Amino acid sequence: MTREDLERLIAQAPHEDLPRLAGDFEAARAATWGRILAPRPASAETIPDQNLPVDEAAGRLGVSKDYLYRHADRLPFTVRIGRKLLFSARGLEKWNAQKQRLR
Prior knowledge:
This protein has 103 residues and is mostly helical.
């Protein structure tokens, strides 16, 4: 709703409805300030990503370490640093949530 819409609503409202309308506006104003001042919830993007070792990633997924080693090239959350094989915690959680929704 635009400011012009609000001004039109006020101009066209019957006089006897104006007190209720003013109360509705005040309630909306208070709710708006409440949202502005409330701390934002942490999202997956605001939480720093972490590289997990194979045993921790396997535990989170409920699979064996061997499974992760065999399928690492096909898993989108695999991180290779030199010869070391790690797994993105954020990527793993997104991938796992996607798989859960498909069930």
